[in-house]
UniProtKB/TrEMBL annotation:
Protein name: Phosphatidylinositol diacylglycerol-lyase
Alphabetized InterPro entries for the sequence: PI-PLC_domain (IPR051057), PLC-like_Pdiesterase_TIM-brl (IPR017946)
Phylogenetic classification of the source organism: Bacteria, Pseudomonadati, Pseudomonadota, Alphaproteobacteria, Rhodospirillales
Amino acid sequence: MDIINTVVSGIDNYDWDGDCRPDLNFQGAQIPNNNSRCEREEVNTHASTHPFTMTLTFSDGSILFFQADQRDAYTKLDRNIPATGAAADRLQVYQTSGGYTNAFYVQSWAVPDHSGWMGELLSRKPDVLVNGLTMPGSHDAGMYELGYSTLFAADEWVQTQALPVYDQLKAGSRYFDFRIYDAGGLLRLAHYSGDNTAAQGGVGPTLDEVLGQIRSFMELPAAAAEAVFLKFSHTYSPEAVGAIVAAVENGLGSWMFTSTDLTLVLQDQPLSALAGRVVATFDAEFAGYWNNANGVFRYMDVPNPPALPDGTPILDPAASGLQVFDHYADSDEFVVMQDNQLGLLTMYGGYGKDYLFLLSWTLTGAAGLVDVRVLSTICNPWLPQRTSQWRTQSPKPNIVFIDFLTPWLCTCIIQDNE
């Protein structure tokens, strides 16, 4: 439901510096369903706490009341906070904080299940093409748990997701970024700072475990019309590429999408042609194993810019496989990331292109802040503002890449297809 009124109370003037304070910039705020409002607050650093209360009134007249402390913006928190009122039986207030950000997600207690959202889209738009839809994507999708990290890498630098891949799929993610490392003969998902011996990072679950989760999802009746895209790249053990391909083929079996058409362009295909299958794509490291008939499709990064000044594409738009414009901002500053990604979207995004446009709503750790959970806390609350705009405006991205993906954030992205 829409929030039709916001009342802020319990304010002590001493706790705040200037006019950037919640009783001034949230008072009377209306926030539509699946949208967000983000404001700058200036606290008096001499105060030890900065408490306030918020009372939200929804479109059915119900109320939700909770208390908060802006001091939490200095601390890494991920928790439900107490809320009262008639809406509290169906709505929770989930807080994430840190990195000078204090965010409150007012979301349903019932966890959204988007296991069949592509099937529902096909029922409304049976002719939709892959390059004519918007899907959630999981950045470093396999790093939802940690095996071990290198000597100079902390766990919080490495973990990028909270949900196992099976639950990411149920949440609605359909594009997965997998990076594999040969850990003593055992293929594991990994996240490293580079591909040389000095690289820092760590490993997560085994590839077999992740592929088993994908199989389990595809076996769900609700997933009968879903197409799942896997991208294998950044392989930290080049000598293991053959073993990786074999593991994927064995692990997915008949769920892999295959084609005898050696010229097949994946982004131009009707979604219905891929429904109920896993589309596995592999970057140039795997060039010797590309084989459409086996379901080992070529992945290609589209250059930035994607064409010469005269409009000539730099890559062949008819090249077999999957082409994706994927250029992240490589910044730990939200404004820099947002301006970079929205600028690229305006210039090169939109439906019906010769490639898929990936919008990377992610921040990259730097010397001052490398905790990926906190970095996602900084940028994820802003995402519903953008997805709500894309519902009525163009261009839209084809893939929205996020860290620490949730079913509620996926709802916002999936609704861009309506």
